Amino acid sequence: MAAACGRALCKVGWNISASPVARRPGTVSYLVGNVSAHGSRRAYGTGGPEVRSKLLSSLRAGGGRVLGCAFLLGGGLGLYHTVKFTAQQHLAEEETKVSGGGVKLTLYQYKTCPFCSKVRAFLDYHGLPYEIVEVNPVMRQEIKWSAYRKVPILMVDGELQLNDSSVIISCLKTYLINKDKSVSEILRCYPELKFVNDSGKEVTEYSNRYWLMLSEAETLKVYPEKGMQKEEMKWRQWADDWLVHLISPNVYRTTGEALASFDYIVREGKFGTYEGFFAKYVGAAAMFFISKRLKSRHNLQDDVRQDLYAAVNSWVAAIGKKRKFMGGDEPNLADLAVFGVLRVMEGLQAFDDMMANTKVKYWYRRMERASLNHEGRV
Q1: What residues have CB less than 8 Å from 376, skipping those under 6 apart?
Q2: What DSSP character marks residue 10?
Q3: Cα–Cα dist 163/43, whole Å
Q4: H helix runs in 46-199, sequence order
Q5: Distance from C-alpha of 362 to C-alpha of 202, rounded to nearest angstrom
Q6: Which of 175, 335, 342, 183 has the alpha carbon at shortest distance from 247?
Q7: What is the rounded CA–CA span in Å between residue 13 and residue 73?
Q8: For labeling, which of 117, 227, 298, 335 is most exposed (least CB within 10 Å)?
Q9: DSSP element (H, E) containing 333
Q10: What is the rounded CA–CA span in Å between residue 11 and residue 208?
Q11: Which residues are catalytic?
Q12: CA 146 distance to own-chain centroid
């Protein structure tokens, strides 16, 4: 539309400058006079009457060619900016198609949930564009359309629903490597299994959640050294089965820490005024006591910080001194999972204590830079 307007201005300008009428001395003063007579007499400039009279005099002296040139110049500038904008838009679309695989991603999340943070770490590192829908953790109206009532949920192109953080990551990573298959085709390799556990509660699990569905040649390219794939899967599962369960007992360790944690959750989450007040004070008190039960359930020490320190140091020891990341020179899926889980404690006392009393700091800062700079962009 802007291009059409620019072409029209150029055409009008050319016609005016080439027209015999435009060569008559009074043409411009006639046109300007009409604008003054029928339009507003308000001047949108910094000059007073003297400046405007000089301008009109110069226009009368220059004749219609001045007006024609003005139209040509305006039209030319319009075309230039239109072409420039179109080119930039095209490049942006191409970049999105290349980096995002041509799919639109929408993440339904709680910002402070470690599983949601894992997915964001993966998407950010790979430079995949995505939209966020923050879910109210009390009412969960944002996901009322879903039979699956947990987060994260990732919607692909507004139609295909991916559940479970590890399935989301494995499925998308497979898609980024092998685009011969669609996301929906890859998702079939992670079937949903529902069963009733010993407590009588229905549980949903997913098969193959830590596997990438690749050919033999693709597998060798992603995991060039023996044992790399097995190591990655082991530590991804460790992040889900052990590390995640250390977060709540540590961030709700004392009443003061529980209150600070819920202050952060309310501030970053999606709560109404009364919900936020209730969550901050009642929720903090509840989670303080629940964290004690979690400590007992997972056989943690009385000082749960020691379990956190031990876990984080075991992770750093597994990476070793010769590697920047568990993936070598670049983060792998285990790096992204552990980083995503630990990141939810940022701004809290537990995070500061972890950084001060373990050897994780340098790895964590490298991961932070890799995520912010989208260093895994394809």
Answers
A1: 125, 126, 127, 330, 331, 370
A2: H
A3: 61
A4: 49-62, 64-100, 114-125, 165-177, 183-187
A5: 41
A6: 342
A7: 8
A8: 227
A9: helix 333-343
A10: 64
A11: 110, 113, 115-116
A12: 22
For residues 346 and 111, the answer to whether their CB atoms sit within 8 Å is no
Which tens digits make up the pLDDT trace of 208-242?
A: 999 999 999 999 999 999 999 999 999 999 999 99
pTM of the model: 0.72
Residue 166 in tokens: 């590890």
In sequence order, what E strands does 127-178 have? 130-134, 153-156, 160-163
The whole-angstrom separation of Cα 332 and Cα 323 is 12
Identity at 124, one-letter amino acid code: D
Where would I find the H helices in 101-188? 114-125, 165-177, 183-187
Question: Tokens 């949930």 — which residue?
Answer: 113
**Amino acid identity, residue 96?**
T
Asked if 337 and 376 count as a contact pair (C-beta separation under 8 A), the reply is: no
Q: Which residue has the tokens 């290349």?
A: 98
What is the Cα–Cα distance from 28 to 22, expressed in whole angstroms?
8
Residues 183 and 171: their CA atoms lie apart, in Å, by 7
Six-digit token pair at 66? 């001045």
Secondary element (H or E) of residue 262: helix 255-268
Radius of gyration of the chain (CA): 31
Q: What is the pLDDT of residues 146-175, one digit of tens each?
A: 999 999 999 999 999 999 999 999 999 999
Give the C-alpha separation, 224 to 220, whole Å.
5
Question: Could you give the C-alpha distances from 154 to 107, 171, 222, 249, in angstroms and in order?
Answer: 5, 11, 24, 28
Region at 99 (left for phi over 0; alpha for psi -120 to 50; beta for the rest): alpha
